[in-house]
Each structure stands twice: as C-alpha cells, then as structure tokens.
Design brief:
The chain is mostly beta strands and 138 residues long. The protein contains one helix and eight strands; from the N terminus they run αββββββββ. The protein has one domain. It binds zinc ion.
C-alpha cells in the first residue's frame, strides 16, 4: 500500500514562528503593534499603519464568523485527490474586523456553510508536532 500523500506542512519563518508555536499549544495568537495597538495579519516585521517594528503576541478568543468561502472541486495538489470537494473559508475574528484568516471549516457539510455563521477555532494535528488552525460551527 502506498504511503498517503499529505498537504504540505507549514514552514514557519522568523515572522510567523510564534503563531505556529501557539497553534501547537492550542492557542490562536495574533500580532499586535505595541505603538498603535492595531492587530496585523499576516505576521510581518513592521506595522503597516505606523511603521513601528515592535509588537506583541496576543491570545485570541478563537471565535469568529464566516466571511467568505469556496468549494474546491478540482484537486490542485496530489493530496487533494481523495479530499475533493472540500471547503476553503475566510474567517473574520471577533477581536478585529481586519483579522481575516484563510482556513477551512470542519464538522459541517459544505452545503450548510453560510455567511456570518459563528465559528470557533480548533487545532488539528497535521502531522506529529504540527497543528493547523481550522474552524467549526458553534
Ligand atoms: Zn502600529
């Protein structure tokens, strides 16, 4: 039997390593500028609002709502051959309307997904030691 093909794992970099470390502890962390107090996503070295290089990591509630979604029907990676159709969603976090994550929704049929549906984060083990944030209805 052939080995299962997995989707690529995240490869943390200097800007988002703390985010991925948080996921592995079941914590959803976002960068917040320590000067202007605005959140930013994706993680980056400089605040796009005030150009400050300083930031802190803040634990989010993990709650949000469905901002948009699509259903993938054509596999774009060999790992998707057995998974289509599957959803890819944008979830807007409750803490800040600018925090919109690309993710996927679990524990729901694709046909039941709705705009503004309340969801919460859940951390799924992609492979040992690597957790990925996904969202489920609440
Ligand atoms: Zn700032």
């Amino acid at each position: 039997m052939a080995d299962a093909i997995n989707f690529p794992r995240p490869v943390p970099n200097i800007d988002d390593e703390e985010f991925w470390n948080g996921c592995n502890r079941d914590e959803l962390l976002m960068q917040r500028c320590t000067a202007c107090q605005r959140f930013r996503w994706l993680p980056k070295p400089m605040c796009p609002h005030c150009n400050t290089l300083e930031h802190e990591w803040v634990k989010m509630s993990g709650r949000g709502k469905v901002f948009s979604w699509t259903i993938i029907v054509h596999p774009v990676h060999p790992a998707a051959n057995e998974k289509v159709p599957y959803n890819v969603a944008q979830v807007q976090l409750d803490e800040d309307a600018d925090l919109i994550m690309v993710t996927s929704l679990i524990d729901i049929d694709n046909d039941a997904i709705r705009m503004d549906m309340p969801v919460e984060v859940v951390f799924i083990e992609h492979e040992p030691g690597v957790k990925i944030p996904k969202f489920r209805p609440v």
